[in-house]
Design brief:
Keywords: Coiled coil, Repeat, WD repeat. With 450 residues, the protein is mainly β. It has helices spanning 381-385, 417-449; strands at residues 13-16, 21-22, 37-38, 42-47, 54-59, 64-65, 72-73, 80-85, 92-97, 101-106, 121-124, 130-135, 142-147, 151-156, 161-167, 172-177, 184-188, 192-197, 202-208, 217-221, 232-238, 244-250, 263-270, 276-281, 286-291, 296-302, 309-316, 323-326, 338-345, 349-356, 372-373, 394-395. Strand 21 and strand 22 (244-250) form a beta hairpin.
Length: 450
């Protein structure tokens, strides 16, 4: 009889980097988001500055103390509620603000050399402050946002307009696209999980997920090897006894009328007070739980049968975290068997954390590094708006292998209003010159006939 469960991830451990980003001036405004975002080039955090919301975009290799006069993204007139990097371009950043707008920013490859005040584009359409924004993981130029005006909007960045608007019953606490970008999962203040089908402009299913009043968070579960089976969702929230819990749901069993149903299991975590943010890695089928105010990150292995969650370990530190985020899977270092790389946001520092599988061999480990999301769009915005659904493009993680090419474009092709005005002015000048030339030719023709 086996006492210990067999698992290749049973000994995964978290390792804090010796290098960190220091002397931060974090914004004191409380947010419902993770509070930090990162990719292979940059790290973004909300920065404390007078007048409106500002973001600091730090090159990922710029360790050590940050200068006091750090160049900032400063174009909003109200506080910033959420922000996110594009999954297809490390240089594109979107921000949502209390000033009711969303703005898209182009970050130079070398980072900011001066304050960035002119966005690529500004999206206006919400009636109240915008709470969340998130890019579609499969289709380029598709962005979802939620607002205190009780709506969820899906934008077409190429046309700079709203494509779909879905009313939501209460204030949104979290929003996530599913694996192929066809559905949205939304948790709200009414303690319910709502599955939104944006292209049908409706809530397809809903169910009550917790009893406690604290904000709830959501994450989709699935497998990159079997993406069509991505029908389960993880939520975090509070019980009626003020205990933090993590629950697993099957959307196929959820009722359309919003009554209770679809629950697979519920696991009580502890009696902490901060929101638990779930992060799921499809490649390893591991779930990471990072709570605001905690000094640890718990991680579990998720299976498709009872008990569904298998606790592995927890990364422990002495300093509590104000936020936590994970870099895209393609950013991990496979040479040290790193399966996930996180960013721990502290009150005055950012601490990178590496999660590794201990292996004696230094060779590439194919069993723990299946193909990962390539960071390339699988389809255009027109394809998605027409109703198509495609799985994200995958790429091998083995060093030296040929990377896949995009089938729907290498990066979002968005033209700023400034560039459009410039193109319009050039076109008008050209039209004016052609009209003058035409008038001259007509005059010459008339003179020749006379």
């Amino acid at each position: 009889m086996k006492v210990v469960r067999d698992s290749k991830f049973r000994h995964v451990f978290g390792n804090a980097s010796k290098e960190s980003f220091q002397d931060l001036r974090l914004s004191s405004k409380p947010l419902e988001t993770t509070g930090i975002r990162g990719n292979s080039k940059f790290i973004c955090i909300p920065w404390e500055a007078g007048g409106g919301g500002t973001l600091a975009v730090i090159p990922s290799t710029r360790y050590g103390r940050l200068p006091r006069d750090l160049p900032l993204v400063a174009g909003h007139t109200g506080g910033i509620m959420d922000f996110e990097f594009s999954p297809f371009s490390d240089n594109l950043l979107v921000s949502a603000s209390e000033d009711t707008t969303l703005k898209l920013w182009q970050i130079p490859d070398e980072g900011l050399s001066s304050h960035l005040k002119d966005p690529v584009l500004t999206l206006e359409g919400h009636g109240k402050k915008v709470s969340f924004c998130t890019f579609n993981p499969s289709a380029e130029n598709i962005l979802a946002s939620t607002s205190f005006d009780m709506t969820c909007k899906v934008w077409n960045l190429a046309e700079q307009e709203v494509s779909f608007t879905v009313p939501v019953p209460d204030q949104v606490m979290h929003v996530k696209w599913n694996y192929n970008g066809s559905l949205l999962a939304i948790t709200s203040k009414d303690k319910k999980l709502h599955i939104v089908d944006p292209r049908q402009s409706k809530i397809a299913a809903a169910t009550k997920i917790c009893e406690g009043p604290k904000p709830t968070k959501v994450e989709w579960v699935g497998s990159s090897s079997s993406p069509e089976e991505c029908n389960t969702i993880i939520t975090t929230g509070m019980t009626s006894q003020a205990e933090r819990q993590v629950c697993l749901w099957d959307i196929r069993k959820m009722p359309e009328d919003g009554s209770e149903g679809g629950s697979l299991t519920a696991l009580t975590v502890d009696q902490g007070t901060g929101s638990l943010y779930p992060f799921f890695d499809p490649g390893t089928q591991m779930l990471y739980l990072a709570g605001k105010g905690d000094s640890n990150v718990r991680y579990f292995e998720v299976v498709n049968c009872e008990p569904y969650f298998h606790y592995i370990e927890a990364f422990q530190s002495r300093v509590p975290q104000k936020g936590f985020d994970f870099l895209p899977k393609r950013c991990v270092d496979v040479s040290v068997h790193e399966v996930m790389k996180g960013l721990k946001l502290e009150s005055a520092a950012i601490q990178p954390v590496s999660f590794r599988v201990p292996r004696k061999s230094e060779a590439f480990q194919e069993d723990i590094f299946p193909d990962c999301v390539a960071g390339l769009p699988a389809m255009t915005s027109d394809d998605w708006l027409a109703g198509q659904s495609r799985q994200p493009i995958l790429t091998p993680m083995k060093p030296g292998t040929q990377k896949v090419q995009a089938s729907g474009g290498s990066a979002p092709a968005v033209v700023s209003v400034k560039d459009l005005k410039k193109q319009l002015a050039e076109a008008q000048e050209k039209i004016k010159a052609l009209e003058e030339e035409n008038a001259t030719l007509k005059a010459e023709l008339a003179k020749a006939k006379a």
